[in-house]
Amino acid sequence: MTKRRLLLAAALLVAAAVPVSAQQFKPTRTIEFVVHGGPGSGNDVFARTLNTIIDQEKLSPVRMQVVNKPGGGSTTAAAYVVSKKGDPHVIACFTNIWLIDPLLQQAANNRPQDMSPIARLVVEPALAVVRADSPFKTLGDFIDAAKQKPGALKMSGGSIGSRENVVRQLLMKTTGARWAFISFPSGGERIAALLGGHVDMMIVDPSEAGEQVRAGKLRPIAQVSDRRLPGFPDVPTIREAGFEITNVPQMRGVIGAPNMPAAAIEFYEDMFLKVTKTPAWQKFIHDSELDGEFVKAAEFKAFLGTFEGTLREILKEAGAKVVR
Question: Looking at the structure, do residues 209 and 131 belong to the same domain, yes or no?
């Protein structure tokens, strides 16, 4: 064997010995970015913002397309992501509901820990809002009215496992008040129901409600947060309003299909880290009243196991039937 052939054979052996995670990965076709809500929902707005920044900053060699998979909370979206096992071109926008649904539904057996955690990006507060012409000036006003007419008042929201319904259950258990929960697949429909007078209150992400609040169409009466947001300094937290319930934090991040190659996880982790360093992302974080905190894949996976336990205890406290 010639010296040149020996060198070539040695190079091939070295390449074969390099771990997959150390080999460079680049997507070669459109990336599907799956969201479990319809257009206008919090996770849809979040995913499209990420998509826009990635496109503007040219952080991906291929385009990324938001794919809406509403239905059953996160179950339809999770089932779709799991069906793409090993596919490095399918990622999804994670929120609490991806952990909550398997805790409440026996048939919802696709847990995010069993997929490919990529990064946690933000911790998100929420606002309890009513119409600007509502007679309810405070959360206490709403609770008192709900006590006087059990079941008469209505609240719009997402699935029964959504954060807003968990907060509702905690408030009802603490106060003895009762009001109805009307589920809608998209954030736009939930807000439209409130503006149209079909429901009386909703708990919504600041990114979804901000425009309507600034326009004077909606009025915040309480904050679902441990502290008051800078943009709403005069609006009390639920605890400050006099209701001692456990705070329910909302996390948002990115997960990939199960068995995603390590090199692909590293590519996406790096891409989203670059997103968080852009001025456009910082502006989005500020305008949306979010707590930006980037958590890498390995830490994110460990966090999911711990956070699942936290959510299990909150659900039990709210009186929900936990199946896992």
Answer: yes
* Residues constituting the chain: 324
pLDDT (tens, 9 = 90+) of the chain, 324 residues, equals 555 554 444 444 444 444 444 358 999 999 999 999 888 888 898 999 999 999 999 999 999 999 999 988 899 999 999 999 999 999 999 999 999 999 999 989 999 999 999 999 999 899 999 999 999 999 999 999 999 999 999 999 988 888 899 999 999 999 999 999 999 877 788 999 999 999 999 999 887 777 898 899 999 999 999 889 888 999 999 999 999 998 888 899 999 999 999 999 999 999 999 999 999 999 999 988 888 889 999 999 999 999 999 999 989 988 889 998
Same domain membership, residue 133 and residue 115: no
CA 246 distance to own-chain centroid: 19
Same domain, 95 and 152: no
What DSSP string describes 228-243?
--TT-TTSPBTTTTT-
In angstroms, rounded to a whole number, what is the distance separating the alpha carbons of residues 33 and 136? 39
Q: Is residue 1 part of a domain?
A: no
Residue at 203 is within a domain = yes
Closest CA to 272 of 40, 41, 46: 46
Q: At what angle do helices 262-276 and 297-317 cross, to 10 degrees?
A: 80
Beta bridge partners of 218: 131
Write out the two tokens for 235: 């609006």
Q: Whole-angstrom Cα distance, residue 255 to residue 116?
A: 5
Tell me which residue range forms the domain holding 93.
17-124+249-317
CA–CA distance, 78 with 76 (Å, rounded to integer): 6
| 157: amino acid identity, one letter | G
CB of 49 closer than 8 Å to CB of 282: no
